[in-house]
Amino acid sequence: MEQEFSMTTQAEFKVKNPIDWVTTIFLLTSPLVGIFGTLYVALYETIHLGTWALFLFYFFATGMGITVGYHRLFSHKAYEAKSPIKLLLLLFGAAAFQSTALEWSEDHRIHHKFVDTDKDPYSIKKGFWYAHIGWLFRKRNYVQQGVQDLASDPLVLWQHKHFYSISIFMCFILPGLITMLWGSFLEGFFVAGFLRLFVVHQFTFFINSACHVWGERTFSKEQTARDNWVIAFFTFGEGFHNFHHEFQMDYRNGIRWYDYDPSKWMIKFLSFFGLTYNLKKVSEEKILQKTMFIKEKETLHQFANLGEEKLKTWSEQLAHLRETAIAEFQKWSKAKQTANEKEAVVSKEKFETTKENWEKLLSQPLFF
Ligand SMILES: [Zn+2]
Ligand SMILES: [Zn+2]
């Protein structure tokens, strides 16, 4: 799946996508404004604790405006949301200054469709820094591909049309007005505005860079996306990116209950009040099937020197056990749904024993 970017492709790309000076200058100077602005305020007054609380609130609200809103709701339609929630996500998403929900989703859908190829807008194959921030320094050269559903959403269109006034107000002015309640306008403007924006930018950019470089590939080996809980901590739960690329319609990225995925928790929490609904989840059986298959393929590949005949016998026996385990798992799920307790106990036990045998066989290559 390695994709080389030839000189011609690169040259063509530079012509089609000239440097976007406004974005480039903004992305390079806004961190400095955040850092030095905060230092400037700190020189003249003690920054109020409330301002730091607002910084934290804005950090989560705008970061999750992107992950819960732009990403899981608008790009992937992994769940549906009532209008007030949609509006809040669009307002705080705009305060993360990452373009409109419409354009963001368009880039992101193309990223999934063409991941790791030269059509991927932030392909990791073009380098870590390109995927992280470099791609933003160039103008986009496509207009509304595959986002017709969003283009007909009045709220999304409203945000798209008035993006700059909404984002400038939500990102810089509103925090300033809030901190005027206990201090100066500049506290909110620099600390919860620019400094917070710098942190949110870098953390969300990690999803396109770090999440495609470091971590495990448990659910799919066909592309570069990885699962990494450390990165999940900095990306509002998006660090489980391998799972996400394989099952992009799932509203969760971290599937185990303890996986740090505040975006998933927020979507679920709002669903208790009917504010979000139709939460999509891939079946456990599909996940099991995929993980067992990948583990098997990987182990067989490691012992390729066993010889064709031995490998064939081993792989046939493994496949048989895997299929039996999945069939028992299906029976168990069905029995649970129909509240057939007796059947559930039997099939659960059969599933567990078969899976254990499969694991044993997987760890005994020398047996052949
Ligand atoms: Zn990705
Ligand atoms: Zn995605």
Automatic annotation (TrEMBL):
GO terms for molecular function: oxidoreductase activity, acting on paired donors, with oxidation of a pair of donors resulting in the reduction of molecular oxygen to two molecules of water. It is found in: Membrane. One of its GO terms (cellular component) is membrane. InterPro entries: Acyl-CoA_DS, FA_desaturase_dom. Residues 52-264 form the Fatty acid desaturase domain. The chain crosses the membrane at residues 21-43, 49-73, 163-182. Pfam families: FA_desaturase (PF00487). One of its GO terms (biological process) is fatty acid biosynthetic process. Its EC number is 1.14.19.-. Keywords: Fatty acid biosynthesis, Fatty acid metabolism, Iron, Lipid biosynthesis, Lipid metabolism, Membrane, Oxidoreductase, Transmembrane, Transmembrane helix. It is a multi-pass membrane protein. It comes from the Bacteria. PANTHER family: ACYL-COA DESATURASE (PTHR11351), DESATURASE 1, ISOFORM A-RELATED (PTHR11351:SF31). Belongs to the fatty acid desaturase type 2 family. This is Fatty acid desaturase, family 1 putative membrane protein. It comes from Leptospira biflexa serovar Patoc (strain Patoc 1 / ATCC 23582 / Paris).
